[in-house]
Every structure is written in C-alpha cells, then in structure tokens.
Amino acid sequence: MSQSYPTMLDLLLQIRAGRHRPHFLPFIGEPNIAVLWGFVLGVEAARLEWQGVDTEYVRFRDWLRDEKDEFPPEGWHSRFLADAHGDHFAAIMRLLDRVAEFRERASV
C-alpha cells in the first residue's frame, strides 16, 4: 500500500495558515527566509526520493518564473528578501501569498 504525503504547496499553505500564531512558522522556527528556502529544498529532495516529482510545485516554480518574473537565477528567496529590504517576515509572506494566489488560479 502506497503512503500519501502532502504536496509542497499544501505544506506552504499550512505555514501560511499559522501566520498569526506567536510562532507562526512551526515547521521552521523563527521567520528567516534562508531557513524556509532550506525547508523547501529538503522537502523537494525527500519527495523526489519517496514519491517522484511534485508536478504541482514544478508548475508553481515555472509560473513564478515565467508569469511573475520572481524566480531569478539566485532564487526566489534572495529576490524576495532584497525586495523586502531585509525584512524576513515580509519576504516569507510574499512567497506564501504567491502560493495561495497560484492555488486559487489553478482552481478556477
């Protein structure tokens, strides 16, 4: 019997849903875009090993790059932090809001 794991976007939306709690990032601790980026890379690597490619996350990355122009070669994490003038919370929320926007678009 195959086990089902949440998708990357499911996990990121869970993080977004907890943003108003004292420690709104139960998956990564304190708001730090580099830690969230590491979390995303780790989950992506684990999913590749256990279940194969998360095609929804691939489509999200492509959308972020092609339609939003927000996935430069140095990565979304660097771009979002620079655009937020070093505000890690704002950079994290930008990613999480983009995930919600992508998911809403996909459901229409």
Descriptive account of the structure:
This protein is an all-alpha fold. It has one domain (8-107). The protein contains 5 helices and no strands. The protein has helices at residues 8-17, 33-50, 55-66, 76-83, 88-107. The chain is globular, with a radius of gyration of 14 Å. The chain starts with 7 loop residues before the first helix and ends with a helix. The mean pLDDT is 88.
Topology as a string of helices (H) and strands (E): HHHHH
Helix content: 55-70%
Shape: globular
Strand content: under 5%
Number of strands: 0
**In whole angstroms, how far apart are the ends?**
32 Å
Number of helices: 5
Q: Provide the residue-averaged pLDDT.
A: 88
Low-confidence stretches: none
How many distinct domains? 1
Secondary-structure-derived class:
mainly alpha
Radius of gyration: 14 Å
The biggest beta sheet reads: none
Features of the shown structure:
108 residues, globular, 0% strand, single chain
Structure described in brief:
The protein has 108 residues and is an all-alpha fold.
Which helices and strands occur, and which strands form pairs?
Elements: H1 8-17, H2 33-50, H3 55-66, H4 76-83, H5 88-107
Helix pairs in contact: 1-5, 4-5
